[in-house]
Amino acid sequence: MKKILTLIFAVILLTLIFVTSPKQSFAACTAGPATNLTATPTGNRGQVLLTWTPAMNGNMYHLVFGSMTNTYVMGALNVGGTGANNYTVNLLNPGQRYFFNIWSMCSTDGPATPSNEAVSASQ
After folding, report:
1. 16-32: b or e for each residue (b if 16 or more CB lie within 10 Å)?
2. What is the mean pLDDT of residues 44-53?
C-alpha cells in the first residue's frame, strides 16, 4: 500500500511540475535588410523597375512607396520570396517622382527590416 501511495504521489507531483512549468518560447526570426535598392524607369509609361540585393534570412518582401521621402502611402505585400531581387511597379503617374523602400521578413510573425530608400521618376 505504501508503494502505491508513493507512486500516486510521484505521478501527481510530476504532473504538477509539467503543467505549471513555464513553456519555452522561441524568438521570431529576423531578416537582415535588402541592400542596394535602386529604382529605374523601364521605358514603359508609368513603370519603374526596383532591384536589390536579397536580405540575409529574407524569404518575403513587401514594397512601400510614396511621393515624399520617408512618407509611404502606397505599397504591395509579398512582392518576392526567397532570393527575390527585383519587382516592377506599374500604374504610376508619368513624370511623378517616387520614393521606394523594400521591407524584408523571414516569417509572417517576424519583424520587418527596411532597405535603403530609392528614388525614381516614372516615364
Report:
1. eeeeeeeeeeeeeebbe
2. 96
